[in-house]
Structures are given as C-alpha cells and as structure tokens.
Amino acid sequence: METTISIEQVSKSFGKKPVLNDIDLRIEKGRIYGFIGPSGAGKTTLVNMIVGMEKPDSGEIHVLGQKMPDLGILQKIGYMAQSDALYMQLTGKENLKFFASLYKMGNAERNERIAYAAGLVNLQDDLNKKVSAYSGGMKRRLSLAIALIQDPEILILDEPTVGIDPELRFSIWNELLRLKNEEGKTIIVTTHVMDEAEKCDTVAMIREGKILAGGSPQALKEMYNAEDLNEVFLKAGRETK
Ligand SMILES: Nc1ncnc2c1ncn2[C@@H]1O[C@H](COP(=O)(O)OP(=O)(O)OP(=O)(O)O)[C@@H](O)[C@H]1O
C-alpha cells in the first residue's frame, strides 16, 4: 500500500500544556481515516500539523513524500477548518471564485468545479447571496465546497458535517465514499459522530493527546468485544487509565 501521510513520533505542547504525545500514524492512499475523541483531545492540533499550520515540537510529518510544512504540497490538500474562513461581504459564488483563483485552472474548468462543489453541498440556489446572510450550516457547506474546489488528492475535513441536516450529511458521505472509491482520494475526517466513524476505513481514537486505539471499525469492535464504537472508546479509555 502507498503511504500518503506519515506521522512519526510527533509531540506538541502549548506553553506547558502537552497536547499531543508521541503520535505515530501512517495514512494510506485511497482510504478514509476518522480521528475521533472528546473535545480538547488534540484532533484539530493534529490536522493543523498535517497541513503545516502548526509545527511539531518533535517528530516529523511527511505528506506525499515531502516534509511538512511545504507550500507546494498545500495545493494538493483540500482543508476544511473547524471555523469557517469565508469572506462575509462576498457572495457564495464570489468566495468559490476567489478560492478557485488560487489554483491553476482555466475558465471552463473553474466554472465546472464551482458547479460541482456547489451542487454537492446543495448551495446552487444560494450562490448569489452574501455569505453574511448564510446560516451556520450554509457556511459549513460553503467551506466544504471550497475544500473541494481544486480537486485535491487529499481532503482533510475538521468536523465537516456539524450543523448539516441528516439528509445532506448522508449525501456528503456518499460523495466522500465515491471520491475515495472511484478517484483514490485520501480523506481524513475528525468527528464526534460515531455513525460517521463507522463509515471510515480506519479510526484513530484520540484522548488526551494519545492514540488510544486504531484500526478498522470492525476490528476495533472485535478487539474490545463491543457493540459499537462508543463502547470501544469507553473500554479503550479504561484500559489506559
Ligand atoms: N493555539 C493554541 N494555544 C494554546 N492552546 C491551544 C491552542 N490550540 C489548541 N490548544 C489546546 O490544545 C488542546 C487540544 O485542542 P484541539 O483543538 O486540538 O482539540 P480537539 O480534539 O480538536 O477538540 P474539539 O473536538 O473541541 O475541536 C486543548 O486543550 C486546547 O485548548
């Protein structure tokens, strides 16, 4: 299997507070990884380090063979942060156009990508409204569309479906599965939702800056003799205490 992202002995503290502790992880091409764990576990810090927005105190992260941070590699990553970084005074379409303009593509391709991304998150009818008039869920959806705009090889999505209704959540997940299966994209998703974690090929359960357990949802359930991933998480947490 081809490794897309390798995380080796990565630790990070903010001031005196250790946030990630000796994380080792290999992310294979064409798979969906779920980072799950309670609030404050260190999931966002880990994804921020993968995209190169934070530097590890020790250890190394390589993406597509390049040590991060690396500006060239950033072009190949679609990143959806937890808080929406949008231009409020511009319309949805203007936001999409702006982010598309950061990448090399012709006019026709750009219009095609905008139509695809807006359609995927069901924002076609709201594209000409200013983002300041969008609801929280609409802003999340626009952020997801922006993460997909340049057709990146890697998608890193920090809680992508928060505030999104179940029907649209279902269609977004179907599209993520299609992107993985048909286009070989590598996808990392952080989530609190166990149903979503079930759809991942591999789940890394993170608590207090450590990976408690990792593996396919099925293997984890068997390993911990658990009915669901919530139970795995509780049992794995008890073992490490
Ligand atoms: N820039 C920062 N400066 C200081 N502390 C930080 C910074 N970023 C994160 N932290 C702290 O690091 C810890 C881990 O935060 P992180 O956002 O990575 O958690 P998380 O697992 O993503 O949580 P959530 O699910 O709530 O998003 C928290 O205690 C947080 O307060």
TrEMBL record:
An annotated Gene Ontology molecular function: ATP hydrolysis activity
Keyword check for Nucleotide-binding: yes
Domain of life: Bacteria
Gene3D superfamilies, sorted: P-loop containing nucleotide triphosphate hydrolases
The keyword ATP-binding belongs to this UniProt entry's keyword annotation: yes
CDD domains documented for this protein: ABC_DR_subfamily_A
Domain ABC transporter: 5-233
Pfam families, per database record: ABC_tran
UniProt KW keywords: ATP-binding, Nucleotide-binding
Matches recorded under PANTHER family: ABC TRANSPORTER G FAMILY MEMBER 20 ISOFORM X1, ATP-BINDING CASSETTE, SUB-FAMILY H, MEMBER 1
Name of the protein in question: ABC transporter ATP-binding protein
Protein's organism: Weizmannia acidilactici
Lineage: Bacteria, Bacillati, Bacillota, Bacilli, Bacillales
